Amino acid sequence: MPDLFTVTTQLPGKHGRTGLLTTPHGEIRTPAFIPVGTKATVKAVLPEAVKDLGAQAVLSNAYHLYLQPGSDIIDEAGGLGAFMNWPGPTFTDSGGFQVMSLGVGFKKVLAMEAVGVQNDDVIASGKERLAKVDDDGVTFKSHLDGSAHRFTPEVSMQIQHQLGADIIFAFDELTTLLNTRGYQERSVARTQAWAIRCVAEHERLTAERSHKPYQALFGVVQGAQYEDLRREASRGLASITGETGRGFDGFGIGGALEKHNLGTIVGWCSDELPEHKPRHMLGISEPDDLFVAVENGADTFDCVNPSRVARNAAIYSPTGRFNINTSRFRRDFTPIDDECDCYTCANYTRAYLHHLFKAKEMLASTLCTIHNERFTIRLVDQIRESIDGGWFGDLKKQTLASFYGN
């Protein structure tokens, strides 16, 4: 079996690097942004268009695909890539984030600032708690129909093996920044115990399904905003070897993060994790976050944000984000961005996009998602080129001054 990951260029004095991630369905040049196709589709966009955007891989969600259409159906179809007509590499997350975030009523995101009273029974206002955690796993109600389900580390591995993605993630417990220090400590210990079980079940399923391509398993580092817990979690995951001695093939850095401490937290994890294994940052895509995460050692990223905000008329440009549905664009017959090479910018005007949103036409979501995904993918491609070319610092300074200066 070839090495999963090879480092090519190191950012001087930093954890950041470029590299090559090898999967059964192709190579990923890193750093790389991985668009999210939660339910086996990047919303509003054809898989062929996602490929044309320069996406090297897509990430789907184990929780959602387990509930609908069912991981057994995707297995029968030949795996996630075949099911959704995506020829390249695929990722699936473990379902842990959705079990927790939907389970406590947070439909989209958890708080990213440690403000408010610490409370281990955090729940969104007016919502019923749908998830109950114990040391063996999580019992939860489906957000679709209220039916009862249970995820354990073994169940998450079984689901993800059926989904057949090239890179899969260990089942972990997601906490919020509002959980108490004591709970965070217990959660890190629980996630470590679950990680050991994930590796064991992954090895069993890999042997049982030896006719299938090998799926790389990533452990997930938790620990919230605490340096000692992040370092402890990183070392703990790196120490797991399993029966085969292989252990984890890479690592995800997850959980709720304070935005202003993002780079510091990624740096703590990179200090402790093996340099020859890839690091995936779960759930970021804003330009400042991308630069600081790369600088501190993250190799790949996924985030729903570029497509989500596009469906609400929010557009990324080199000079910042703006809403295309405001009146100043009614008679603006220029592209979103003269320098952008996406299909939307080559063929459509701001005035037309403004019209589509006002008319509530579905094409609005398609065209704006194409642009936003291309903007993010292209930015990370430029970051990768700048590390190889030795001008990362200049790119960071110029890009962030332009994007946030206005």
From TrEMBL:
EC number: 2.4.2.29
Catalytic activity from the UniProt record: 7-aminomethyl-7-carbaguanine + guanosine(34) in tRNA = 7-aminomethyl-7-carbaguanosine(34) in tRNA + guanine
Keyword Transferase: yes
Residues involved in Zn(2+) binding: 340, 342, 345, 371
Annotated active site: 93, 302
Keywords noted in UniProt: Glycosyltransferase, Metal-binding, Queuosine biosynthesis, Transferase, tRNA processing, Zinc
Cofactor note: Binds 1 zinc ion per subunit.
Subunit structure as annotated in this protein's UniProt entry: Homodimer. Within each dimer, one monomer is responsible for RNA recognition and catalysis, while the other monomer binds to the replacement base PreQ1.
Protein name according to UniProt: Queuine tRNA-ribosyltransferase
Lineage, opening ranks: Bacteria, Bacillati, Actinomycetota, Actinomycetes, Mycobacteriales
Gene that specifies this protein: tgt
